[in-house]
Amino acid sequence: MKNTALTDTLRPALLGLLLALGVVAATRAGPAPTDRVVCVSKQINEFIYELGAESHLVARDLTSIYPSQIQNLPSVGYHRALSAEGIISMRPTVVLTDGNVGPDPVLAQIRSVGIPVETLEPGATPEAAEQLMLQLGSYFHREQAAEAIVARWKSQLAQVGHYDGAGRPRVLFVHFGQIGNSYLGLTRGGPADRILEWAGGVNALDEVGGMAHLTPEIIARAAPDIIIATDAGFDRYGSAEKFRELPGVALTPAGKSLRIHRIFETEIMYFGPRTPASIEKIAAWLHPHG
C-alpha cells in the first residue's frame, strides 16, 4: 500500500530539486528571457548594461551605481556584507559575482536553496576586462554586441595614447571606505595606478596592491601635487576648499594649490569602455597646458 501522505510530502521537495537542477543547467548555457539575475559586481553590472542585457537584472549591490538607471533596482546590500534573505527574496535564478563577496556562510545559504552562484573572473587588466566583456556577451547571447564594444574600446584606447613627457606630478587617490567609515589611498599596481601612469602621473603612495588606510601623517608625507578623490569621499565635503579640511591635506602641495579633483569611483576602480575617457580627464588635470 502506498504511503500517500509521504508521497504528498516529498513531491514538492522533489519538484524543487528538479527545478533547481533545471536552473543550473539553464545558467550554464546562458540566461533565458525570463531569467532573474542578481549581480554583485559593479564592473559586471556596468558591462551588462553596455551589452543591453539589463532586462535580466532584478537587483544589484550597494556599490553598483553606474549607469545611473541601475539605481532604480533594489539593492541587496554591500558586497562584503550580504544578507541571504535579501537576495533570496528577489527570487533570482542565478547570482553573478566577480568573487569579491561575502560572508561565505551567506553564499552557502543561497546555494542551499537551489540558487546557483556563478563567479566570473574580474577584469583586473585591460586585456582581462575585454575578455570579461566577451564572456558576458556569450553568456547573454549578445556576442556581436560584445565584439563591437571591445573593438571600439581598443580603438579609443589607442587614440588616447600614453603620456611620454617629463614632469610627472605626484598624485594621491583618496577613496572613502563606506563600511569602515575611513579614508583609503589607492596604492600601486591596481587599475587606478595604471590609468594614472597612462595619464602622465605617478602614485604618491609607495605601497603595492589594493588600498592603504590614510592618516594625516601619511597624507602629509606623501606630499601629493594633486589629489583625486572619489565621489563619495569628496561629496562629504562638497568642494575642494572644504576637502582641504581633511586632516593632513592642507599640508600638501595639492592642498596649498587647491589642485583637488572629484572623480567617480567607477571610472578608476576597474577597467571598462569608459577607461579611455578617464585617462583623458585625468591627463587634463595633470597637464593642463598640454
Distance between the termini: 89 Å
Instruction: State the share of residues found in helices, binned by percent.
Output: 40-55%
Q: How much of the residues is beta strand, in percent?
A: 5-15%
Q: Count the strands?
A: 10
The count of domains is 2
Total count of helical runs of at least 4 residues: 13
Which structural class do you get from the secondary structure elements?
Answer: alpha/beta
| H/E series | HEHEHEHEHHEEHEEHEHHHEHH
Sum up the structure in keywords.
290 residues, alpha/beta, Rossmann fold, six-stranded mixed sheet, 14% strand, globular
Write up this protein.
- With 290 residues, this protein is α/β, with parallel strands linked by helices.
- The chain folds into two domains: 31-154, 3-Layer(aba) Sandwich (Rossmann fold); 162-286, Rossmann fold.
- The protein has helices spanning 4-29, 42-51, 84-88, 104-112, 126-139, 143-160, 191-199, 216-222, 231-237, 240-243, 253-257, 265-268, 275-286; strands at 37-40, 57-60, 94-97, 117-119, 170-177, 182-186, 202-203, 211-213, 226-230, 260-263.
- The strands form two sheets. Strands 5, 6, 7, 8, 9 and 10 form a six-stranded mixed beta sheet that branches. A four-stranded parallel beta sheet has the order 2-1-3-4.
- Strand 3, helix 4 and strand 4 (117-119) form a beta-alpha-beta unit.
- The longest helix has 26 residues, at 4-29.
- The radius of gyration is 22 Å and the shape is globular.
- Residues 1-28 have low confidence and may be disordered.
